[in-house]
Design brief:
The chain is mainly beta. The chain has nine helices and 47 strands. 9% of the residues lie in helices and 49% in strands. The strands form nine sheets. It has a 22-stranded antiparallel beta barrel. A five-stranded mixed sheet has the order 9-14-15-12-13. Strands 1, 4, 7 and 8 form a four-stranded mixed sheet that branches. A hairpin with a 2-residue loop joins strand 33 and strand 34. The longest helix is centred in the first third of the chain and has 23 residues.
C-alpha cells in the first residue's frame, strides 16, 4: 500500500494498531500507538536505504575524479563463503543493502582500470560509505576475490557463528519438518541435538531466541510447538552464544539473528525446487525475487509431505505421516533518501500424526496434531544523517496448536488427551543507532504483550499405569474392582498417585478438564556501545526488563565484553560477562502455573507458578588464523542460574509442560574450525561439551515423573548434558559450476538417560522399552514377545550405557544414551545444462548413510523416546531463472 507522505503512513499505522477487540488487545494497541508517535514524529520532522542488516555504499571515480559507471563491486565474507556482487550505476554510485553484520573483503574492478581492494566491517544498520578511486591499468589484470589471514578472524566481542545461504544450501537436512534448526545444530558449536528439531544451546533446554530482521521471537520454534520461518526465506544466520549484547534478552543462551532475503535492487529472478525420497517424502519450493532501487519483493512458497514427519519412538516408522505448507513474503520500499519501509508476512500450517509405539499401534491409537500460525512485522527505518538512524518495528504473530485424541479414548494408551492452545504475541520496538569515531552506540526499547489461551483434557486409559495394588510378584493389578490391598497377596503400590484416581477412565473415572487464559506484559530498555580503540574492542551496556504475567519480577542486567587483536599473529582474545533475566516458557504455561486445577496437582509432586530467573554468564575464548587457510575459534563458558527452566511430560504422553528448578550450574566449551576454499576443498568442524548440573527441589510447575528428584536438593545431570558432540562437513567442488561431493560426520557421546539407573530397573522395563534400549543378556536380546526378566550376569544395552551395579550417581555417573556416529552424503551438479539464463541443479542426499540404529533420547522426562532417522535417500532438481 503506497503512501504519499510520512503522515499517511503514520495514520495507517494507528488505524491498524487499534482493533476493536477485548481489553487486553486494546491495551497492547495503546502501547503500539505510543511507539508509533515516537517514530512518526521523527519522520515527519525530517524528510537511502537501510534495514536491520547492514548497507554499504560509495562512489567509484578515476584518478581525475571522473565517475566510473558499470564498475563491479564484489564482497566476500571468508569464514562463511558468503559472496555477493553489484554493479555501479552510470553515475558511479553503488549500493549493497541487506548485508549480514560481518567483516567483508571488497574488490572493485572496471575495464581499463587496475582492480582495487579494501576491507570493511558492518556492525550497525547505519549506512557505511566507502568511496574509491581506481588507477589506470598498466597491463591486463585478473581479479580474484580472496581474503587474507586477517580477514579470517573477527574482533567482535560477541562469540558467534555465521551461516550463509551458500552453506545452508549444501547441508544434508536430517529433518524435513525442522530444516532451520537442523542447520543450526550442524553449524554451531555447543548445540546438543534432540529429537524433532529441538536442540539444547550451551547445556540449556531450548533457551534460544530468533531475531528475524530485528523482530524478537523467543517462543519455541521446533515443530511440536510451532511452525518456524521457512529455511528458503533465510539469507544468513548469525548465532550468538557469548557476551550477549544488551539489545537481546529473554531466552538468551543462543540468539539467532536471522536476515531474510530481499528483492530490493535486483533484477527479477526466481527458483523452483522439487524433491522426492525415502518414506514417500516430497517437497516443493517456489521463490521469486526482484525490484529496483525503490521497490523490492521476495516471496517463497513451500510444501512438504512425508511418511516420517516427526522422529519416531521405534526404529520402524509407525503412524508418522505429516505435511506442511509455508508462505513468506518480504516487501521493501525505499520511500525517500531518509525513509524506507520493510514488511514481512508469513502464514504456515502443519498437520501430522503423533508417532506410535508397537503397543499403541496394536490398539489403533490415532493421535494427531495441527499447527497454524501467522506473522506480520513492519519495519520503518529513518536516517537522520550519515551517523545516526532509527528503526521502528511493530509486529503481531500467533501460534495455534490443536492436539486430537483417537476416536475411541481407550485406543489411546496410557492416557487419552486433547488440547487447544493459542499464543498471540504483539510487540513494538524502537532502536536508535549512532556511529561516530570509535563509538557504535545503540539505544532501544521493546514493549510486548503475549496472550495465552489453553484448553486441556486427559484421562488414564491403561489400568496398569496407576494401579492401586501390586501382586506378590510386583506386577500391577489391573482389576478395577480391587481398591483395597490386603497383604500378602496384594501389596500397596508405592508409586500410586491418589490424585489421579478420579481421572482414571479404566477405573470408572472422568476426564480431567482445564481451561485457562493469561496475559503477559513485558517491557525492556537498553543502551550499549561498541568501542574500537586500536587493537581493543569493548562492549559496554546495560539492559532493564520488567515481566508481569502469572508472576512478576524485574531486573537490571549489565553486559560487558572485550577483545584484543594481535594483528601480527592473526590472534584475537575474548572475554565477556552478562547478567541475564530468564523468563518462563510460554507453551502450556497456564496449566503448569495453576494451583487448584481440579485435583490434578495432588497427583503431581509440585505445583507452583513459574517465576523469572537470573543468570550470571562468563565467557573466555580466542580466535586464531593460520594464514588464509584455517581459522580456529574456541570459547569456554560458565553459567550460574537461580531458578532455571525445563519441561516435563504429563502422564507419559507427548504433551509437555514447563517446570522450574532451584538453580543450575553449567559449564563447557564450544570450538569451531573453518577451512575456506582451497583448490575446491572446503571444510568446517564444530565441537561442543556441556556439563549441565541442576539442583532441586522443583520449585515451579507440575512435576509428575520423579518425586525423589522433585524434593531433593542434591545436584543431578539433566538430559541436556553431553560430554562431546561434533559435526564435521567436508566438500569438494573443483570448478565454480559443475559437480560436487560433500560428506558430513556427526558424533554424539550421549545425553543423560537418568530413568535407567541400574540393572534392576532395566529388567523391569516393558518388553517394548527393552527392545528400544537394545537390552541383552549373554548375547540374547530382548524382544516384544520375550523380554528379559532375570540375568545371571550383567545386563547390557546396545543403545543405553547402564552404570555398573552400585556405581550409579545422578551427578557423577548417570545412565546415558550410547555414543553414535552418523554419516551423511551429498552429491550434486550445478548448471548441468550449461545455460546462462535457466540453470538446472541436481542434488542427491543420503542421511544416515550406514543406517545406524541409535537413539536421541530414552524415557526422557522432557520428550520420551525417539530414534534417529533411518537411512533416507532424497533426490532434488532445482531450476533457477
Amino acid at each position: 500500500m503506497p503512501f504519499s507522505r510520512e503522515g499517511d503512513a503514520c495514520a495507517f499505522l494507528f488505524r491498524v494498531s487499534v482493533p476493536k477487540l477485548n481489553r487486553s488487545l486494546l491495551q497492547s494497541s495503546i502501547i503500539l500507538m505510543v511507539f508509533g508517535v515516537l517514530g512518526c514524529v521523527a519522520a515527519v520532522a525530517t524528510d537511502q536505504v537501510s534495514t536491520s542488516a547492514g548497507t554499504l555504499q560509495g562512489t567509484i571515480t578515476d584518478p581525475s575524479g571522473a565517475l566510473i559507471g558499470g564498475a563491479t563491486i564484489a564482497l566476500l565474507n571468508a569464514p562463511t563463503g558468503f559472496k555477493t556482487t553489484t554493479v555501479a550505476d552510470t553515475k558511479g554510485h553503488y549500493l549493497v543493502p541487506n548485508l549480514p553484520f560481518n567483516p567483508y573483503h571488497v574488490t572493485v574492478s572496471a575495464p581499463g582500470f587496475a582492480p582495487a581492494q579494501f576491507d570493511v566491517e558492518l556492525r550497525s544498520p547505519v549506512v557505511v560509505t566507502h568511496d574509491l578511486s581506481l588507477q589506470l591499468a598498466t597491463s591486463v589484470q585478473s581479479v580474484n576475490v580472496e581474503a587474507s589471514g586477517n580477514d579470517m578472524v573477527e574482533t567482535d566481542t560477541s562469540s558467534h557463528t555465521d551461516v550463509s545461504q551458500q552453506m545452508i544450501s549444501r547441508l544434508p537436512i536430517d529433518s524435513n519438518s525442522s530444516a532451520l534448526t537442523s542447520v543450526i545444530t550442524q553449524t554451531t558449536p555447543g548445540m546438543t541435538q534432540d529429537s524433532n528439531g529441538m536442540f539444547h544451546p550451551l547445556g540449556e533446554h531450548a533457551d534460544s531466541s530468533f531475531s528475524i530482521d530485528g523482530q524478537n521471537v523467543s517462543d519455541q520454534q521446533s515443530r511440536t510447538f510451532a511452525n518456524a520461518i521457512p529455511v528458503n526465506a533465510v539469507q544468513s544466520l548469525e548465532v550468538i552464544t557469548g557476551a550477549i549484547p544488551p539489545e537481546y534478552g529473554d531466552k538468551a543462551s543462543a540468539i539467532i539473528r536471522t536476515t531474510t532475503k530481499s528483492g530490493l535492487g535486483s533484477a527479477i529472478h526466481g527458483s523452483s525446487q522439487f524433491s522426492y525420497g525415502t518414506f514417500g517424502t516430497s517437497n516443493g519450493v517456489f521463490s521469486l525475487s526482484g525490484g529496483n532501487q525503490k521497490f523490492g519483493n521476495f516471496i517463497t512458497i513451500d510444501g512438504s509431505n512425508s511418511g516420517r514427519f516427526l522422529d519416531t519412538p521405534e526404529f520402524q516408522v509407525l503412524h508418522a505421516h505429516g505435511n506442511n505448507e509455508d508462505v513468506f513474503d518480504r516487501f521493501d520500499w525505499q520511500q525517500s533518501a531518509k525513509n524506507s519501509y520493510h514488511v514481512n508476512l508469513g502464514v504456515s500450517r502443519a498437520w501430522f500424526q503423533v508417532p506410535n509405539q508397537y503397543d499403541q499401534q496394536a490398539l489403533g491409537q490415532d493421535q494427531r496434531q495441527q499447527n497454524k500460525g501467522f506473522n506480520a512485522s513492519g519495519f520503518w527505518t529513518h536516517i537522520f544523517d550519515d551517523n545516526q538512524l532509527a528503526i521502528f518495528n511493530v509486529y503481531a504473530r500467533q501460534d495455534r496448536v490443536g492436539y486430537y485424541p483417537s476416536a475411541d479414548p481407550f485406543s489411546d494408551t496410557p492416557a487419552t488427551l486433547q488440547q487447544t492452545r493459542r499464543l498471540t504475541n504483539l510487540g513494538a520496538k524502537l532502536d536508535y543507532s549512532y556511529v561516530k569515531g570509535a563509538h557504535n552506540i545503540k539505544i532501544g526499547a521493546n514493549l510486548y504483550h503475549t496472550l495465552l489461551s489453553e484448553e486441556f483434557a486427559t484421562g488414564i486409559t491403561d489400568p496398569a499405569f496407576n494401579a492401586i495394588c501390586l501382586d506378590a510378584a510386583g506386577n500391577p493389578v489391573t482389576n478395577p474392582a480391587i481398591t483395597t490391598c490386603v497383604p500378602p497377596a496384594l501389596l500397596p503400590n508405592p508409586g500410586f498417585q491418589p490424585g489421579l484416581l478420579p481421572f482414571d477412565l479404566s477405573r470408572g473415572g472422568m476426564l480431567f478438564r482445564f481451561r485457562g487464559h493469561a496475559d503477559i506484559r513485558q517491557e525492556a530498555a537498553y543502551i550499549q556501545d561498541n568501542i574500537n580503540l586500536n587493537n581493543f574492542q569493548f562492549l559496554v551496556g546495560v539492559r532493564g526488563d520488567n515481566y508481569d504475567g502469572l508472576s512478576s519480577d524485574h531486573a537490571i542486567q549489565p553486559r560487558l565484553g572485550v577483545t584484543y587483536n594481535v594483528k601480527k599473529t592473526g590472534t584475537v582474545f575474548r572475554l565477556g560477562y552478562g547478567r541475564l533475566f530468564i523468563t518462563p516458557y510460554n507453551e502450556n504455561l497456564v496449566l503448569s502455573s495453576s494451583t487448584g486445577v481440579g485435583g490434578l496437582e495432588s497427583g503431581a509432586f509440585g505445583v507452583q507458578p513459574l517465576r523469572p530467573g537470573n543468570r550470571n554468564q562468563f565467557n573466555a575464548g580466542f580466535s586464531q588464523a593460520f594464514g588464509k587457510y584455517l581459522v580456529v575459534n574456541a570459547e569456554y563458558f560458565w553459567k550460574f542460574t537461580q531458578r532455571d527452566f525445563d519441561f516435563d511430560t504429563i502422564l507419559n504422553t507427548p504433551l509437555t509442560f514447563p517446570i522450574e528448578w532451584r538453580k543450575s550450574k553449567i559449564d563447557g566449551f564450544a570450538i569451531r574450525v573453518n577451512m575456506p576454499n582451497i583448490h575446491g576443498v572446503t571444510a568446517s568442524s564444530v565441537l561442543g561439551h556441556a556439563r549441565s548440573r541442576f539442583f532441586g527441589p522443583e520449585i515451579g510447575g507440575i512435576l509428575f515423573n520423579d518425586p525423589a528428584l522433585a524434593s531433593s536438593t542434591a545436584p543431578f545431570r539433566i538430559d541436556h548434558d553431553q560430554a562431546l558432540e561434533t559435526t564435521t562437513h567436508v566438500q569438494y567442488q573443483p570448478r565454480k559450476e559443475g559437480g560436487w561431493v560433500g560428506l558430513t560426520w556427526r558424533y554424539d557421546s550421549g545425553t543423560v538417560a537418568g530413568n535407567i539407573p541400574d540393572q534392576a530397573v532395566a529388567l523391569g522395563l516393558t518388553p517394548d522399552q527393552q527392545q528400544q534400549a537394545g537390552l541383552f543378556c549373554g548375547g540374547i536380546f530382548a524382544t516384544l514377545s520375550a523380554p528379559i526378566r532375570s540375568c545371571p550376569g550383567l545386563v547390557g544395552a546396545a543403545r543405553i550405557n547402564i552404570p555398573a551395579p552400585g556405581t550409579f550417581n545422578p551427578d557423577r555417573n548417570p545412565a546415558r544414551i550410547a555414543p553414535r556416529n552418523l554419516f551423511d552424503l551429498g552429491l550434486g551438479w550445478e548448471n548441468i545444462l550449461h545455460r546462462d539464463r535457466l540453470k538446472t541443479n541436481l542434488t542427491l542426499t543420503v542421511v544416515n548413510l550406514t543406517d545406524k540404529e541409535a537413539l536421541y533420547n530414552f524415557l526422557s522426562t522432557f520428550s520420551g523416546t525417539h530414534f534417529v532417522s533411518p537411512r533416507t535417500v532424497t533426490g532434488q532438481v532445482e531450476f533457477n531463472f
